[in-house]
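Per reviewer request, we include the raw input and output of the structure prediction for the construct analysed in the revised manuscript.
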Amino acid sequence: MKELFQHAAITDGITVRVAVNFLPEQSRVEAGKWFWVYHIRIENGSDRTVRLVTRHWRITDGHGAVNLVEGEGVVGEQPILQPGQSHDYVSGCPLSTPQGSMEGYYTFECHDGAQVRAAIPFFPLAAPATAG
């Protein structure tokens, strides 16, 4: 299955692409729980080898409440990307509202110790009207 990446951001040669889908089978609308899955592809288009060291997310629900999430790596990994390589992973986001948004950045470390803060593009979380 070919994924359709709906959102992208490029920072210093590092491209972050996002595809997001609402999962009705993981949601419990009657209990006020909505769930989305997102597929991230990180592409190293720079001429440097980089290691993803931390993630920083800003998750906003439909009421405007913000949840900041920070941590090491992504899904338990700190991938190293040579020039031209990419890394994919899938994760999920539950909300207590049928809409919201996510955005943020990854911090990458270069072999020379320099750091790059690569933007994760803003993307909306929106359940279909029939789901809520």
